[in-house]
Design a protein that fits this description.
4 copies of one chain form a homotetramer.
Chain A: E1 2-9, E2 15-17, E3 22-24, H1 30-35, E4 43-52, H2 59-72, E5 78-82, H3 88-99, E6 105-109, H4 122-135, E7 139-144, E8 147-150, E9 154-157, E10 162-165
């Protein structure tokens, strides 16, 4: 299967700047993560679109992500998008709005704790997204923390530190 | 979703005995692995069935695994079996033979390199199996290395260190 | 040997707050670090004095650290102090000023990258300090990055991200 | 300081062969370990002498190690030897026998659990040896598990999985 892997930044890709003493989006570490996985089900096209904390994304960014997905849609069997969690749902909804129907599975994912940390959830979430994109029907999804949810209607659950379906309390 | 997680041992669970200076199946480390994952899609029933290097499994072991799956089938939405790779395919085929049709997804997985190692594939494979079991149709599968294959007809590819469909060369 | 291990916070002990999305001094993770080491040369007395980013330390804090060391001096064979690097040298000089001569080795250490990060230098530095304190003559030292330097006259080298002797360029 | 780092193999350098399903001495992983440390106190000369499980060492090997140390003695400030623990003490005693007096610190170290394992003691022991060699007086030592012991008279304590002084029970 041909899968496009689009990176946009987010917590998952934050690295530590020991001089400024902060975690920030400086370089893409997705390729380091990929090198640690054995990927025999898919062939990946890497698209390094942007590297932003999603709190700094604006409407133009969401449009650009949606349009990039639209361009990749026709010659791939699926698309995985790595995204900051704070505005991941905005991009998910925007993809649906601008593309109408999608013909392949489109899976957004991210992390609550950067890959740079020992106790990161980045590896789990990327692993899941790269499998989910092979098994799902066409549609737009978030895959994270061992759960796949379909857009529209997905929101970030700030208290639980994960995603859930709107107006249904997470268990 | 209610998932039964059956452990039978295998390379994935081998730990290092510093006195005997060998890797061996002594304790189940599946619970350590689970504690490092955020599992929000499933509720797990742990079944610690045996802890064997699968090279030491005989027909009775394969029957016991198949019958255990048969017993768990009715009151779970899916079953994940952690198994040594050398005889994983034997258990996969045996489950199909003894159960006939299965009504939930049954996903076997394992590892080429124990969880105890830095460069293990155990975490990737367990993560994938726990997601695949939520997304697949009823059937018996192996999920490993970012690829899901359905029984019957799956064999271990010794040269590649993974699984493949019989008589079709892996790419 | 009886060693007092005094923690004051600093980068080494910062953990990630996934809600505030920052690294901060919240809990002491020194005990987690100690549990991962095999310590057969020393017997440790843990003194959890404070948990501060050293940029927030003031004169009272440096005095408190010096006086705590003074109190531990008589019934221990050595003292290790875990400290933020930004003001580590201030505490080192203050200990010398307030105690005059010291009768046991006093070793300060810290980290440029928190223990919570994959690529931390915390484990290396703590390991070194716990050995150096057994081998050094009485005096006040910083032990970090495979190098031991003696106070007075040690300063942080901001460009290199380590410590050096004042007015001598690091190589 | 100029330090020679001599590798001879041992558990510390064992890697996992996923086809033979055993841990074995195949490649030197010391350089991987060194790359993960910040070494600002020493300049290292790497000497890859052999890569043997020390249980397979014979008298010729111990002589070769002693003579190699003898050759490096004059133009280095210290020597660190990475060695299998089972016959580490034999090499330590042999160095003393063949060299008589030594003019620099010679520090042997190893590991009970290979670097390839998550819970290895290899990094701790190498870190300690690379610091101890800077702080010790001339002599032959083993540095391991936060304790430095001087030859002659050091033996492996099989029950405790570490080293101790002969005829004195470890505490």
């Amino acid at each position: 299967m041909k899968i496009a892997l689009v990176s946009t930044g987010g917590t998952i890709e934050k690295t530590y700047d020991q001089y400024a003493q902060v975690l920030a989006n400086r370089v893409s570490i997705l390729d380091v993560m990929l090198a640690a996985l054995e990927l025999r089900g898919i062939e990946i096209t890497r698209v390094a679109l942007m590297n932003k904390d999603s709190l700094e994304m604006d409407d133009n960014d969401h449009d650009l992500i949606a349009d990039t997905v639209g361009g990749l849609n026709s010659d791939h069997d699926g698309i995985v998008i790595v995204h900051g969690t704070d505005r991941l749902a905005n991009s998910g909804e925007r993809i649906l709005e601008r593309l109408g129907t999608v013909t392949v599975p489109i899976v957004l994912t991210g992390a609550m704790r950067p890959y740079a940390l020992r106790n990161t959830d980045a590896t789990q979430n990327l692993t899941e997204a790269l499998l989910a994109v092979q098994l799902l029907q066409p549609g737009v999804y978030v895959s994270m923390h061992n759960r796949v949810l379909q857009f529209p209607g997905v929101i970030k659950d700030e208290d639980e530190g994960t995603f859930r379906i709107e107006s249904i309390s997470s268990s």
